[in-house]
Amino acid sequence: MKTIVSGIQPSGTLTLGNYLGAIKNFVTMQNEASDDDNIFIFIADLHALTVPQDPAALRKNVRSLAALYLACGLDPNKSTLFIQSEVTEHAEIGYLLQTITYIGELERMTQYKDKMQKQVAGVSSALLTYPVLMAGDILLYNADYVPVGEDQRQHLELTRNLAERFNSRFSDTFTVPKPLIAKVGAKIMSLQDPTKKMSKSDALEKASIFILDQENVIRKKIASAVTDSDGSIKFDPVNKPGISNLLSIYSCASNTSIEELVEKYKDSGYGEFKKDVADAVVNLLKPIQEKYNYYLNSKELDEILDNGRDKASYFARKTLSKMKRKMGIIRKK
Ligand code: ATP
Ligand code: LTN
Fold this sequence. Notes:
- By secondary structure, the protein is mostly helical.
- The chain has two domains: 3-181 and 299-327, HUPs (Rossmann fold), CATH 3.40.50.620; 205-293, Tyrosyl-Transfer RNA Synthetase, CATH 1.10.240.10.
- It is built from 13 helices and five strands.
- The chain has helices spanning 16-32, 45-48, 55-71, 89-98, 103-107, 110-117, 125-139, 153-170, 215-223, 241-254, 258-264, 270-296, 300-327; strands at 3-8, 38-43, 80-83, 145-147, 178-180.
- The strands form two sheets. The chain has a three-stranded parallel sheet.
- Strand 1, helix 1 (16-32) and strand 2 (38-43) form a beta-alpha-beta unit.
- The longest helix has 28 residues, at 300-327.
- The chain is globular, with a radius of gyration of 21 Å.
- The two termini are 31 Å apart.
- The structure holds adenosine-5'-triphosphate and L-tryptophanamide.
- Adenosine-5'-triphosphate (ATP) binds at residues 8-9, 11, 15, 17-18, 20-22, 148-149, 151-152, 186-188, 197-201.
C-alpha cells in the first residue's frame, strides 16, 4: 500500500508545462496504482493566495482546475480530488509546522526569492511560509510519493527535513516522502526564452501554451518558438535550448523517446519539425478540451468535490490529532 499526494495552484490558466510536468504523471500513477493505494490530488487554493488574487477569478479558476483534472483523466473512483481550503486541517498543520521551521530555511527557497521580486504591492508573509503549508499538505496524508515538476524539488527537500525533525523531536509520526520527478517533461521551458521555465504567470502570452488554447493559437505559438541558427535537430539543452525544449514537448506529447525523434528528424529542417511538434500537441490537447467543457458544466463536479473533501478530511483529522497530542496540544492525556 502506498500514498501519493500532489496539488496544483488555481492561479491562472494551466500550461502545457503543468500538464506534462505534473498532471500527466498523476494520471499515469493513478492508472498503475493498486486498489489499496491512496491517491490525493487537490486544488491548492490556499497557496494561490500567497500572491494577490482577484476573488471572482480565483473562484472561477478553482472550478476550472477541478474540471481539468477530470478532463485529463483523473478518476474520482481511484483518486481523491478535493479543494485544499475545504479541509481546514491544512491551515492548522501549516501553523504547527511553522513552529519547527527556521526563517533561514525559508529565506533560502529559490521560488520565494524569484516571486518576491515580482511583487509590486509588498511581499506577504504567506509567500515566505508557503513551503511549510506545502509540507503540511503532504505530511497530513503520510505521503510516500509526491509527483511534481523539477521546480518543486527544493520544497520537497524541506518537507523531508521537517518530517525528520518532527519525528526526532516528538517521536515517529510522519512518513518521510519522496519526490517523483519525471526524466523528460519535468521542466518545460518558455517558447520565447527557452532558458526560463514555462509559467502560467508569464506576462508574454506566446511564451506559454495553455491547455485550453485553440488549435490555431497552438500552431502559431510553436511556429514562432525561439530556436537557433545551427539548423540541426539535436538534444543539447545548453547550446540548443529551444530545439531541446521542443524535443522534450514532442517526446512527452507523443510518448516517443527523444533518441527516436532525433533519428527521425536528422535530415529535416526546423519548419517541418515544428509542424509535427504542433500536430502532436494539438492531438494531445484536443480530447482534453472536449472533456473539459463537459465537466465544467456538469452536476457531477460538485458531488466529486464534496466526496473528495469528506474522504480527505477523515485522513487529515486523524494525522492532525496525533500530531497535536505529541506536541502537548491536548487537554487530557
Ligand atoms: P506560477 O507560474 O503561477 O508560479 P506554475 O505554472 O509554476 O505557477 P504551479 O501551480 O506552481 O504552476 O505548479 C503545478 C505543478 O506543475 C508543479 O508540480 C510544478 O512543478 C509543475 N510545473 C509548473 N511549471 C512547469 C514546467 N514549466 N514544466 C514542468 N512542470 C511544471
Ligand atoms: N507548491 C506546488 C503546489 C503544491 C503541492 C503541494 C505540490 C502545493 N501543495 C503538495 C505537491 C504536494 C506548486 O507547484 N507550486
